[in-house]
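Reopening: Beta-1,4-galactosyltransferase still failing for me.
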Amino acid sequence: MGLCSHMFKILRRGKYFVLLVLLLSVLAWIATFSGETEKAVLVSPATTLTLVKEDSLRDKVNTLTTAPDRLNTPPQKVDCPQESPLLQGAMKLSFESSLKLKDVENDNKGVIEGEYEPSDCAARQSVAILIPHRNRERHLLYLLHHLHPFLQRQQLHYTIYVIQQAGDATFNRAKLLNVGYLEALKDYSWECFIFHDVDLVPENDHNLYICDNQPKHLVVGRNATGYKLRYKGYFGGVTAMTRDQFLQVNGFSNTYWGWGGEDDDLRIRVELQKMKIVRPPADVARYTMVFHKRDSGNEINKDRMRLLGRTPQVWRKDGLNSCSYKTLSVERLPLYVNVTVDIGKPQS
Ligand SMILES: *[C@@H]1O[C@H](CO)[C@@H](O)[C@H](O)[C@H]1NC(C)=O
Ligand SMILES: *[C@@H]1O[C@H](CO)[C@@H](O)[C@H](O)[C@H]1NC(C)=O
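Support: Ran it again with your exact input. Result attached.
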């Protein structure tokens, strides 16, 4: 009898077990289903692309921007304040010839592989800083020395990318910046991009490295020009555009080899989209330009006026959607990501 009742109990439990399994499967099915709809809602309103109709490019950027984020931020942080309490205003900059990379690394322990985010609050924007580079190690060192603490005082989440042109063909700043944009989006869905010359160091941390609802030009003045705008409409040196603004103008032209013109070309693209360039106040948007001679391999681009004339006709076909290059290496160094690329050479 003891055996019988034991068997009976097991059978009864078995029935409950089957019921339990059924119930769990139903729950699991509901969970996956609602998870999918949630994902679908999150993906659909991605980029509000209006004028560039290249779907393949849009798809490419969308897949890039939905790449998994490398930092697993705990969700609990409160937003950083509207104005960072750490800002110091105008600073006296130093350019010590004895400065070493190791010193800058030691001063910036919170930076890991070029990336930083505030530990005690959620940054208001995630910003990729793109610096085109070749043979300017000293300038880069000074810039890193000043820029890292500057960005940390602004309480930003950022990564510094150095886009290194391989080989010795004529320099192409604009194409390197297109590459930087595409490569940085493989790491994280940055909402804002700062296109930054290596020899310009910001003097005042109220010059915020965040994006606006219009493209922003950050260099009103520099010591080399008596802190005056170089010319009306100047849009070079350091500029800030959102991911979508840059996509909307199809990025920079890839065809400007040598010094000059590519920044005016970007201004024309921005104006064609009826966007308006904004600037911070002149007393804030000040830079020190570290002295250098014109590099060999970056001679004045004599063709720039002709190129500028055809921008309205060619911008849709010449830009992010036609930027072909070969990534040779991506080195994640303590203070920056070094993306080294072969971008080809000018067509004769
Ligand atoms: C601007 O300041 C930098 C750093 O002190 C210096 O190297 C450069 O010569 C200055 N330029 C001018 C035109 O004063
Ligand atoms: C970037 O990496 C390339 C390839 O290793 C190297 O030649 C170049 O010096 C590096 N540039 C910087 C600024 O670290």
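The first strand starts at residue 115 and ends at 116. If you still see a failure, please send the error message rather than a screenshot.
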